[in-house]
């Protein structure tokens, strides 16, 4: 991916140097220490969590080092907004600010699929992906009842 970005950047006159960093020191020696980096973000359980961890001015994982007081204000407002439609509109406004002003590029999006067996109960789709936003253990159970086999529904 880095080489693809490097080649595309050349077309607009931007020189990107690609450096391979050792995996054992990436998080402590490389991550968020250079003007530009490359990584991935797993789906989060809520938009608020994504915004708070990665885009708020004081966010611990603010990889682009972006600071926007208007964004921070909208984030605070969204947390106290009980009306879901109004909160959704605030999230839309925050995403627009990120799109137009933040120094982040998203070349791909992760697609997650949940697989299950008919004996697994309580599993349902979640916007955070990854087995109900990583909260599957709170909601699922295994149905130990025998499953009929054969067309006549005979004994297993």
Task: Choose one word for the global shape.
Answer: extended
Biggest β-sheet strands, sense, barrel: 2 strands, antiparallel
Termini Cα gap: 50 Å
Mean pLDDT: 84
Model regions low in confidence, pLDDT < 50 over at least 5 residues: 151-156
The computed structural class is mainly alpha
Describe what this molecule looks like in 3D.
With 156 residues, the protein is an all-alpha fold. Among the domains are: 45-109, no CATH class; 113-145, no CATH class. It is 36% helix and 3% strand. It has 6 helices and 2 strands. It has helices at residues 2-10, 26-30, 47-54, 69-80, 84-101, 130-133, and strands at 120-121, 141-142. Strands 1-2 form a two-stranded antiparallel sheet. Helix 4 (69-80) packs antiparallel against helix 5 (84-101). It starts with a helix and ends in a 14-residue tail after the last strand.
Q: What is this structure's SSE topology?
A:
Blueprint lengths: L1 H9 L15 H5 L16 H8 L14 H12 L3 H18 L18 E2 L8 H4 L7 E2 L14
Antiparallel strand pairs: 1-2
Quick summary of this structure?
With 156 residues, the chain is mostly helical.
Task: Output the keywords.
156 residues; 3% strand; 6 helices; extended; 2 strands
């Amino acid at each position: 991916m880095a080489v693809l970005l490097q080649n595309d950047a050349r077309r607009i006159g931007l020189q990107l140097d690609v450096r391979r960093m050792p995996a054992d020191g990436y998080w402590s020696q490389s991550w968020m220490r250079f003007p530009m980096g490359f990584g991935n973000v797993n789906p989060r359980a809520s938009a608020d969590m994504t915004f708070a961890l990665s885009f708020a001015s004081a966010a611990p994982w603010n990889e682009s080092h972006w600071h926007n007081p208007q964004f921070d204000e909208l984030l605070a407002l969204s947390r106290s907004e009980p009306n879901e439609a109004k909160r959704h509109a605030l999230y839309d406004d925050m995403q627009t600010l990120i799109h137009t002003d933040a120094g982040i590029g998203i070349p791909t999006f992760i697609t997650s699929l949940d697989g299950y067996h008919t004996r697994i109960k309580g599993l349902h789709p979640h916007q955070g992906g990854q087995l109900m936003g990583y909260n599957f253990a709170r909601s699922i159970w295994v149905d130990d009842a025998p499953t009929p086999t054969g067309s006549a529904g005979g004994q297993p």
